[in-house]
Amino acid sequence: MADVGEVLMSVLSTIRVPKPGDRVHKDECALSFSSPESEGGIYVCMNTFLGFGSQYVGRHHARTGQRAYLHITRTRKAKKEDENNSGSGHPPKKKPTRLAIGIEGGFDVEQELYEEDVKVVILPDRQEVTSEDLGTMPDVVRERVSLSMSGIMAADSVSHTLQVQQWDGEVRQESKHAADLKQLDNGVKIPPSGWRCEVCDLQENIWMNLTDGKVLCGRRYFDGSGGNNHALLHFQETGYPLAVKLGTITPDGADVYSYDEDDMVLDSKLPEHLAHFGINMMTMEKTERTMTELEIAVNQRVGEWEVIQESGTTLKPLFGPGLTGMKNLGNSCYLNSVMQVLFTVPDFQSTYVSNIDKIIDEAPSDPTQDFKTQVAKLGYGLLSGEYSKPAPDPGDEIGASEPRGDQVGIAPRMFKALVGRGHPEFSTNRQQDAQEFLLHFINMVERNCRSGPNPSEAFRFLVEEKIVCQQSQKAKYTQRVDYIVQLPVPMDQAANTEELKEAERRREEGDSSAPTVRAQIPFSACMAALSEPEMLTDFWSSAVQAKTSATKTTRFASFPDHLVIQIKKFTFGLDWVPKKLDVSIDVPDTLDLSGLRATGQQPGEELLPEVAPPPLMTPDVEVKAPVLDDSTVSQLCEMGFPLEACRKAVYYTGNTGIDAAMNWIMSHMDDPDFSAPLVLPGSSSGPGTTPTESLSEEHLATIVSMGFSRDQATKALRATSNVLERAVDWIFSHLDDLDSMEVSEAGRSAAESEGGRDPPPGPRVRDGPGKYELFAFISHMGTSTMCGHYVCHIKKDQQWVIFNDQKVCASEKPPKDLGYLYFYRRVAD
Fold first, then answer.
1. Is 793 annotated to bind ligand?
2. 62, 466, 685, 769 - which has most CB atoms within 10 Å?
3. Which residue in 680, 677, 630, 638 sits closest to 655, CA to CA?
4. Which residues pair with 781 in a beta bridge?
5. Positions marked active-site
6. Is 507 annotated as a binding residue?
7. If we measure between CA atoms, which residue out of 692, 703, 752 comes closest to residue 730?
8. How far apart are CA 146 and CA 139, in angstroms?
9. How far, in Å, CA of 280 to CA of 284, rounded?
10. Sorting pLDDT into bands at 50, 70 and 90, what band is 623?
C-alpha cells in the first residue's frame, strides 16, 4: 500500500478550502439520512463538500474518482442529572413563558452535547489521516489539508443555515407613531383599576387609546371569545393609532398595539404617554394576561389538542418499516403529516422507493438539488425502518430503559428546502395549511414526472359541471381536473342545535362556567350540501342572449384510485375575521359515491349555443375602465387578498357591497386567474390577446422543454400575463383545455418519441367504482391554519397508528370525527 503522505500529495489538487458561498453538507448525507451521529458517521467530499453516509461514499468515489473525504463522527455525551429532577426518571418540563423557540423561557428545544472525531479518509483503501499525522508531512500537504479540514468544520452546514435554531415571537419594533404621538388635552384621567369598555361595559381585554384616552374592549378572538372590536372600530373612526392593554402595565412595560401598523409594537415614550392620562407606570401591577401569554395558551389549548393527540392515554410506541417518525423543523408538522400519508400510497412507493437505486445512479452531480432523488430519499427513510429506533436517553445506560415514545426518526431538511425553494410560504418556518402543501407537492410531482410514471395520477379525477339555464332549460357541460374534494360544513344542520344555543346564551350572560360545546354535523348533511344544485342568479345565457338564473350541478366524471376529502373548516365570520369551525363530523370508514357519477348529456337535452356574451358597451362609447367602489376594494385588500382579485370581485358583483364581493372571492379563490388583472369584455388587451411578440422567448422555451407545444405555452403565458410561474401552474390545471392542441415533436420527451406514439390527448385519469375505505386522516389543532399543530392517523395492517412528528404509536381512540383531510382508497367490487 502506498505511503499515505504520497497519496495525499497525489490528490492535493482535488482538495479545496471552502469559500464564502460554498454549500457545506456536513450534517446530512445527500442520499440518505445518515449523519455524524449515525453508525459509520458521515464523509464530506473535500472537493464538492457533499456529505455521504458510509453506505454511499464508495458509490460517490466510484462515480467521480474523488478520493479525499473528511470523516466526521459524533458521540453523544451523557447529560448531568437535572437538579430539579422530579424522581420520575425525567426532569419536569418547564412551562413556557415566552412565545419563542430555543430561548430561555420559550418552547423547549433540546440541545445535545457531543464529542467529535475528525479525520481524513482516502478511498478506495480507506487510509486514515488525523490532524496529528499531518504534522509529519510536507508543509504544502499539511497546510492545504489543515486549511480544508478547519474550513469545513468552521463553515455553517447547509442544514444549520436552513434550520431556524431560535425564534422569538416577542421581538417587537418601535412604532413609527411613538416619537411624535399626538395626545389630546381633554382632561381625561384613567383610574388605576376597575376599567370597563365605554361602549359595552366588558371588563376583560380592555385597551386605552393613547391619543384620547378612550377605554374600549379589544378584538374578538377566532373562537368567539375576547372583546367586541370597539377599540378597533374607534381607530377606524378616528385614525388614532396606538392603544395600551390595561392590566398589562408594569414598571417594565406593557402591551402596546399599533392599529395602523397592525402589530404589537414598542413605545419608548410609554411612561410619558401614560402619565398624560394620570397613570403612573412605576406603581402599576399586572392583572391581565399579556398577548404573548394568550397566544401560548391558544397554542396549548386543552380539549381539541388532547383528543387529537390522544394525550389522555398511554400509547404503545411502534417501531419498524413504515413506522418512522419525522422531526419537526420548526412548524413543519404540516409537511410531516402529508408525506407520511403519501408514502402509504402504492404509486408513490413504486415510483420513488422501489426505484431508489436507479434514481441515485442517474442523479445529477449535486443530488441535494434533484427533486426525484430527494423524494426517493425521504420515501426510503420512512419505509425502510432503518431510522425507526427509540431515541436514546442520555441519562440512562444503553438498553437500560423501556423504549420511549420519541424516535431517532428523520429530519427532512434537504427535502423541505428543495420543495419550498422560491415559494413565499413553504420556504419559511411559519406554519402552513396542509391542504395547500399537498396541492403544491402534487404540482411539483406533475412537473417532474411528465416523461415517466406519475404517482399523482392516483389522486387525479375529472369533475363535470352542468349548468342549466332556467329560462330556456338548455344545458352547458364542462369538465376540469381536480385532486381534492372540498366538503362544505352546513352549520345549520347541527344535530345538537339546542345544546349549542344554550351554551351560547350562557356565554352571552357572562357565565364563565359555560361548557364549550362542539357542533355535531352529520356527514350525510355535508355530502348533501356538496351534491345539491347551486343557484346562479347572474348567469348570461347564450340561448336567451341575456342574464338570467341558472343551476349548477357538480358530479364526478371519473373516480380516482385514492380520494382526498377536505373538510372546509376554515371560514370567515360575520365580521370577516378568519376562524376555524369547531365541529365534529361522523366521517364513515366506508364511502359509496356511485350516486354522484356524472351522466353527461341526456337524450333529448339541448345544449346552450357556443356564443360569447356581448362586450360591455354603451350604444356609442366603449367602456374604457370599470367604475369601482374604492372603499370596498381597500377593505378586501386589507384582508390580504390580491389587489386585482379585489377589483374583479367588486366589478363582477356590480359594486353591491363588501358582503357580495367577499362571497365572490371565496368562491373564486381556486381559479387559476384569481390574481390576474381585470380585463373588461370587449377590451383590446389582457389574457388571450397578448401578441406573441410580447411574450418572453425564454419563458416559452422553458415551458416547451417540459413537453408542451409552443402553441400550448403561448396560450398559458397569455392567460397569465406572461408570468412564468403562474403559466406553469395554469397549464397543469388546464390540461383538459389543451385537448385539441397537439404536443409538438420538439417538445416531446425522448422516452415518448421512442415509444413511436403520441401521448393521449388531455389529462390521464383512472376510473373505477366509486366505493372507498378510509385509510388515513390528517387533523389540525389550533385556531387557524397559520398556527397550531398537525398530526396524522394511518391504518397499518388493520391497526390505526398515530404519527405525531417523532412519536409513532398504536392509536387507541382515533379521533376520526375531528379530521381536516381524509384519505380513502378504492375498494374493489
1. no
2. 466
3. 630
4. 789
5. 333, 789
6. no
7. 703
8. 10
9. 7
10. very low
Give Cα separations from 390 to 511, 807, 816 (angstroms): 47, 10, 27
| Residue positions counted in the chain | 829
Per-residue pLDDT tens over the stretch 157-186: 766 555 433 344 446 789 999 999 999 999
Phi, psi of 51 (to 5 degrees): -100, 145
As a whole number of Å, the CA-based R_g of the chain is 31
**Helix locations, 47-123, DSSP H:** 54-64
- The answer to whether 233 and 588 have CB atoms below 8 angstroms apart is no
Sorted by where each starts, the structural domains of the chain and their CATH numbers stand as 4-78+112-168 (3.30.40.10), 206-300 (3.30.40.10), 316-391+405-463+479-533+554-603+761-828 (3.90.70.10), 630-668 (1.10.8.10), 700-742 (1.10.8.10)
CA distances from 276 to 181, 258, 575 (A): 12, 18, 34
Q: What is the DSSP string of 599-653?
A: --SPTTPPBPP--PPPP-B-SS-B--S----HHHHHHHHHTT--HHHHHHHHHHT
Q: Name the grid cell of 663.
A: 362571497
217 is in an annotated binding site: yes
Strands 51-53 and 42-45: antiparallel
540 is in an annotated binding site: no
Cell numbers given for 273: 404617554
pLDDT of residue 560: 96
Is 637 assigned to a binding site? no
What are the pLDDT digits (tens) for 215-269? 999 876 544 556 788 999 999 999 999 999 998 898 888 889 999 888 889 999 9
Is 219 annotated for ligand binding?
yes
Is 408 or 71 the better-scoring residue by pLDDT? 71
Residue 825, marked binder: no
How far apart are the C-alpha atoms of 249 and 290, rounded to whole Å?
10
